[in-house]
Amino acid sequence: MLPREGVVTYSVVVEEPPSFIERRREARRPVHLQSGKILDGGERFLTEFLYRNKTGGGIRLRLAQRVPLPRSIILYDDQQGALLAANVIWQNGVDAGCRMKGRWPHNEKLLLRMSGPYYSLQ
Known about the structure:
Blueprint: E1 29-30, E2 35-39, E3 45-54, E4 58-63, E5 72-77, E6 82-92, E7 95-103, H1 108-115
Antiparallel strand pairs: 1-3, 2-3, 2-5, 3-4, 4-7, 5-6, 6-7
């Protein structure tokens, strides 16, 4: 069916309660519409991501593509314009859980590339 003027479609996404025992000391905080880019340790672009939720020391990501992630990655946060180091703890398809390690050493050239339109090219 072709879209018509004045017709809107939408879907409601409800996150299911976990089917496992929660081991976190802090509650997860949902994050809405925050995106970023994932790079490997050699500062090569791998894929884009959306934050699913955050805790004090970790994050859950939804990857734009099914890409196997290396253990150590660099995250570029689109909203903050910051480079962050993280370790991948688990990955299941396009979902991944990471432990944050802190800021990546300042690299002006990489920050400019990630914030520009051709970030995937080196």
